[in-house]
Amino acid sequence: MLIAFAVQWLAFVPAALGRTDRFFDATGSLTYIVVTALLLAFAPETGPRGIILGGMVILWALRLGSFLLLRNIRSGGDDRFAEIVGDPVRFLSVWSIQGLWVSLTAAAAWIAIASGSGPDADGMLWIGLAVWLLGFAIEVIADLQKSRFKRDPANEGRFIRSGLWSVVRHPNYLGEILLWIGVLVAAAPALRGWQWIALLSPLFVILLLTRVSGIPLLEAKAERKWGDDPEYRAYVARTPRLIPFARRR
């Protein structure tokens, strides 16, 4: 966790001097990779569970980090930070929160790896890996579908409602939640006593995406942009927010 915070604070310095958030998301992804790699290198014993858990975290971070970095470069930045990049105190707090976010979301994998990974490969490991693969696939496909949609000039000013986005309104977040649940399931046999604090990992992701900075912000932005559009109102009415086939909200 100290390393996770240290990476954020080091990256904050050039970001604050340049008043840019362009590398914020990429730094978060790099932190996952650096800490996970260090744990794999120095863990007392790294069996199949530790290697697979490390691979889950690193592969996810590489994919998401590169995706967000390219998106920010194309768009010129993230409008979430427009009002705070010029305020060093508020801007530093955001980087510090990212250090906490990284540590909590990766907690299950990091604790299991650091503890020696527990029993060798078992059913829980393979079930967790299967859930992770499902979540990873959903997230990747949803991001690709939305990127392709936004690149089409004919879709300028329109909202996506095709592919996975016709099943739920936030399929990328559904994938994100599933993959971290998969990490916890795979790590569970290695957890003992206080290490069950790792349960916070998927719970934190669910809380963050559904109640704090994920879905609420995007839904509010969409309402401001398309709230008076009958087609958007019909889309919201027929499409569940996050869970397929659930009652629409």
Provide a concise account of the structure shown.
With 249 residues, the chain is mainly α. The chain has helices spanning 2-18, 24-42, 48-75, 88-105, 107-114, 123-151, 171-187, 200-212, 215-226, 230-238.
What Rg, in angstroms, do the CA atoms define?
A: 19 Å
Task: Determine the mean pLDDT.
Answer: 91
Note the quaternary state here. single chain
Poorly predicted regions are none
* Percentage of residues in helical conformation: 55-70%
Q: Report the β-strand fraction as a percent range.
A: under 5%
Distance between the termini: 37 Å
Total helices: the number is: 10
Largest sheet: none
Into how many domains do the coordinates divide? Answer: 1
What is the SS-derived class? mainly alpha
Plain-language structure description:
- The two termini are 37 Å apart.
- The chain contains ten helices and no strands.
- It has one domain.
- The chain is an all-alpha fold.
- Helix 6 runs antiparallel to helix 7.
- The protein has helices at residues 2-18, 24-42, 48-75, 88-105, 107-114, 123-151, 171-187, 200-212, 215-226, 230-238.
- The model has no long low-confidence stretch (mean pLDDT 91).
Strands, helices and their partners?
Blueprint: H1 2-18, H2 24-42, H3 48-75, H4 88-105, H5 107-114, H6 123-151, H7 171-187, H8 200-212, H9 215-226, H10 230-238
Features:
249 residues; single chain; globular; 10 helices; mainly alpha
